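Structure (tokenized):
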């Protein structure tokens, strides 16, 4: 993908969704728009003037930004997204809301629609087909969630040249199939950002031409699929940054019981591509490639800014042999940057390649906090001192202020004493049996998060032991003090030959 790709959203799709609206028979409805913010669920936006029903076909022939809008307010209480959406110059925005497609979602049965989902949740009863027939559909996902009960299929049938661009969001599906059938199908998934969760993956298994291109996105597969993915990598069907990066594949490491595939670019950008929460960043860093021949000089241009349209007018390094540059960032901002390396043995005026567009943001992340596991202990002839095992972290590097408090205890007469409430791992002194509830709070300049733990204190070790699962009293421990001793013998002797059985 060219780093200078446009992010203009031109959208169209094919859907099957049953809603509350019903019509007597299937009709073809043409989008005219212009009413109430181009809401899908407004009858006057269609010709004839009725909200599309579940079996209807709709035709959308309009410029981007003038087509239907589907979100929490624009779907309409009685709207239904229909069986087929047609048109060669389509525009459709799905930016929010929650709706259910009962059967398949077929994108690209006719022409070459450009499709986008940027928000909301879509539940599909079966497959998400991108390119079910001949055509060149493109599906852009920039946000939201798609839950497919069946497969995610990219370029299914003869003549289909289909592309899924993941710029964000999450797709959950049973399995992923990229160009699984005919020789003249071409299927590409560009996992730029976002996540695909699936149970299995197949790429070009029966003659199609397929590619999974991973950048800062993540593919997660249930179970151990390392051998399967490794085979695809070996056959050139999975690449990192179009061949300019390194793939990272693991099982049961990043995600328990699952296979995880990610990638990093060979320039090794820092902040990492797609990273969030870089509030304290003061430098961009990268790793230049080695020269093509010994003695040659490798230099670079670096571009940095917040406006994609002006990014390549914002050069912060010009043809220098450096691997870092100081920058100033503002909070709550998305930044883009790119590194173009030069090699004097190849060309003094043209870069050896145009580096990809990296991005990061300075959104402040909330601290993460854990009070640790609950504890059971006992008094040992005096107060019990317990070591607390709190954990506090802040991924964006900001300072976190810690505060421990006792929010419940057996009695206020002898309150629990925390040695230092401002650290994650203080001790607490407990003097009475009962249940104590402690809270740890961590905060930065924007967020405050808390977690709690319980400490159950028994009067002694025997009471503690007798309250554990599976405990059984020792035969002969008459007074239930967890030991058979002279006291039990004295009780036995005192009551020797006494009886209390029933008589007539």
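Design, position by position:
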């Amino acid at each position: 993908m060219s780093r200078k790709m446009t992010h203009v959203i031109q959208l169209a799709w094919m859907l099957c969704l049953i809603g509350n609206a019903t019509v007597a028979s299937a009709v073809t409805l043409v989008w005219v728009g212009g009413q109430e913010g181009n809401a899908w669920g407004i009858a006057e936006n269609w010709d004839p003037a009725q909200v599309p029903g579940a079996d209807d076909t709709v035709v959308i022939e309009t410029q981007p930004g003038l087509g239907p809008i589907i979100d929490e307010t624009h779907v309409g209480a009685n709207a239904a997204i229909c069986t087929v959406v047609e048109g060669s110059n389509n525009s459709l925005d799905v930016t929010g809301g929650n709706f259910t497609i009962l059967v398949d979602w077929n994108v690209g049965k006719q022409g070459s629609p450009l499709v986008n989902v940027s928000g909301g949740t879509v539940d599909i009863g079966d497959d998400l087909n991108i390119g079910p027939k001949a055509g060149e559909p493109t599906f852009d996902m920039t946000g939201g969630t798609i839950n497919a009960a069946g497969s995610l299929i990219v370029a299914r049938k003869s003549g289909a040249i289909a592309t899924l661009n993941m710029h964000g969001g999450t797709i959950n599906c049973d399995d992923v199939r990229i160009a699984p059938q005919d020789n003249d199908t071409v299927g590409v998934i560009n996992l730029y950002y976002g996540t695909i969760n699936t149970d299995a993956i197949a790429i070009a298994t029966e003659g199609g031409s397929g590619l999974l291109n991973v950048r800062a996105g993540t593919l997660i597969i249930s179970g151990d699929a390392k051998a399967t993915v490794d085979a695809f990598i070996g056959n050139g069907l999975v690449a990192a940054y179009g061949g300019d990066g390194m793939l990272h594949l693991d099982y049961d490491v990043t995600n328990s019981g699952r296979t995880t595939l990610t990638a990093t670019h060979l320039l090794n950008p820092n902040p990492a591509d797609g990273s969030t929460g870089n509030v304290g960043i003061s430098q961009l860093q990268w790793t230049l490639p080695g020269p093509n021949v010994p003695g040659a000089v490798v230099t670079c241009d670096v571009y940095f800014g917040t406006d994609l349209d002006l990014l390549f007018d914002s050069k912060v390094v010009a043809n220098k042999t450096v691997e870092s540059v100081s920058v100033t960032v503002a909070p709550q901002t998305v930044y883009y940057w790119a590194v173009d390396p030069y090699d004097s043995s190849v060309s003094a005026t043209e870069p050896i390649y145009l580096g990809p567009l990296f991005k990061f943001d300075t959104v402040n992340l909330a601290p993460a906090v854990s009070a640790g596991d609950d504890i059971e202990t006992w008094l040992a002839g005096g107060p019990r001192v317990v070591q607390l095992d709190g954990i506090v972290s802040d991924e964006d590097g900001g300072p976190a202020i810690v505060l421990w408090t006792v929010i419940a205890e057996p009695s206020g007469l002898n309150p629990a004493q925390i040695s230092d409430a401002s650290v994650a791992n203080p001790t607490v002194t407990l003097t009475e049996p009962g249940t104590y509830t402690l809270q740890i709070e961590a905060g930065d300049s924007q967020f405050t998060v808390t977690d709690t733990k319980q400490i159950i204190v028994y009067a002694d070790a025997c009471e503690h032991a007798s309250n554990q699962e599976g405990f059984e009293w020792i035969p002969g421990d008459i007074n239930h003090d967890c030991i058979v001793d002279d006291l039990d013998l004295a009780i036995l002797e005192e009551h020797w030959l006494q009886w209390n059985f029933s008589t007539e």
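Reviewer-requested clarification: The chain has three helices and 36 strands. Residues 9-102 form one domain.
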